Amino acid sequence: MKATDIILFFAAALVSYLVSGLNPAIILSRAIYHKDIRTCGSGNPGFTNFKRSFGGRYAWFVFLLDIAKGAVLFLAFGLLFRHFRGEWATGVAVSAVFAMLGHAFPVWYGFRGGKGVATLVGAITGIYPPVVLLCFAVWVVILMMTHYVSLASIVAGCCFPVFTIASPKVNQSVPFIVFSFVTAVLLLYTHRKNIVRLKNGTESKIYIWKPHRKADK
Questions:
Q1: Distances in Å between the alpha carbon of 158 and those of 11, 24, 114, 173?
Q2: pTM (2 decimals)?
Q3: Could you give the residue ranges of the DSSP H alpha helices within the chain?
Q4: pLDDT tens, 33-56?
């Protein structure tokens, strides 16, 4: 391996980990509400808990910022790897894995971070957007059927490697295949408490659109 390659891999890993560790939910909850989102609700510093704890006014900013920070990282390192190594997928995959690790275990916040779902969305978009649409479709269907964001995220994340292997556009890319399985495992790990609550029937539901109540007669 060339010295340039070592520098690229190290930079992709370190920068992605550190930048992705900056959590919008924690930053916005402290700046706007003067609270730490990790002390509210389920304690998870992500979109779902932010929306449940503070309402939807700023929750979508959390979701979009999580995607945006990831997309910028993946695009930057994808382009750098393409320029120096002649290929795109490895740079995005390395950046994405460490970005998810940074988001889930941020050094800035005592290694207490989020689940990494939005980071995963940004990563897949950076490599092959059609897989995002398939995973998102699964996420929406499961959410609408169950109203469990965690379950929808887990199922969609586990479908990621399946869609990757089934897609002729990316199933020849070893880095992308490895990345798909690694991220699926990471999502299962970061949702381990949710899995226990789902099993025990204590997981909270969320309604994107509040159900209409029939007027009392």
A1: 28, 25, 18, 18
A2: 0.82
A3: 3-20, 24-33, 47-54, 59-85, 89-104, 117-127, 129-146, 149-166, 174-190, 192-200
A4: 999 999 998 888 988 899 889 988
